[in-house]
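=== RUN LOG ===
request id: a7f3
mode: sequence -> structure
chains: 1
length: 422
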Amino acid sequence: MFSNKRWTIARRGRHNQVMGLILVLIATILSIPAAIAGDIRAVEIGDREVTLRFADVVAGASALVLAGPDRIALDILGADPGRSPQGSGLVSAVRQGRPAADTARVVLDLARPAVVTDARFAADGRSLSVRLRPVSADEFERAAKTPRTEWQPPLNFRAKPPEKRYSVTVPIGAPKPAPALPKIEGPNNPRLPLVVIDAGHGGHDPGAISPHSGKREKDITLGIARAIRDDLIASGRVRVALTRSDDRFLVLEERYGIARRLKADLFISIHADAAENEEAHGASVYTLSEVASDREAARLAARENKANIINGVDLGAHSGEVSSILLDLTQRETMNVASDFARLLQREASDDVTFRTTAHRFASFVVLKAPDTPSILFETGFISNKDDAEFLASAAGQKKVARGVRDAIQLHFARQIAAVGR
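=== RESULT ===
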């Protein structure tokens, strides 16, 4: 059993740390310009010229010569990778990737050694043309040893944004008030840790639908969330709140926003996955990372993050640049705590819940981006799988999931207290 007083002291220390980081964050945000971003719409390969076309103005570009195999890397700041064409002329193949969160890389695999002799943005900043010149193997090796910053003429410059030709004024109403905070249930003791359970989807957003029973993800997640709440309350060791206790829709930011406003010590978002392969089964636990652990994690995050979009309008639009700052300044310790809990949850719940072989995964879920609240997304199974769907929809199955989550939560906070006492 953990001590109420020691837990309160631990939370106060963490709160003071977070407040200091937030002050740094505010100063940083005020000092940076608005982000400029654009997808790479096309890469056009000529005999000795490569043209990159963007959906919008990008922040700049740089080039790097790489040997073994011979290639040229074009890094586009403030852009997202796009589709790659077939090679032609000096370029045998084109590949695209993301070396950093705010940078797209276009790799030109060379049919023969070549270097960049000139690069220029179009007047509107929406395309970049790069001239290539064939060189000897020796000259290419020398170029490959030269840092990108020493290239002449440099590519490392910012594109000029197009000038405004008109302006539009649109009246907007007063911002909607934040959703009412849910009731905190359990012992009437503010010194006890608070866990916020989020039932994924809801309202007009049903989530995934089982092809076997027609069960909807939003109903299954609510049932599991309620079961977890009941077990936690019965334990008497923590306080608990649900982001939604009925069939209502919440924007993703509102979900973790509730946890932050309540000053929660742990946030758990409950979901159920679906896949085209009906043999896929088992639970997974996700924690936040801007770099997905695999393609499946990236696909799932992209699908879940679309819950905010209705008729093409992002109801929870947020700045990617601000998100990256939050991640860098305030989430390092929080993410470590979340990862520790994810591993603990798998261990404690494995007797009752079947987990996938690689159960702990990483992805950029919006719902996990509270900078000061350890957060996980618990994919409790696949409702596209007949056995998983029956298990998750049944009272007995939901009770087993709840029992594993309860045991992990109790051990998690006991460990936190023990760490403070050392």
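=== NOTES ===
Residues 22-36, 149-159, 308-327 have pLDDT under 50 and may be disordered.
The longest strand covers residues 91-100.
=== END ===
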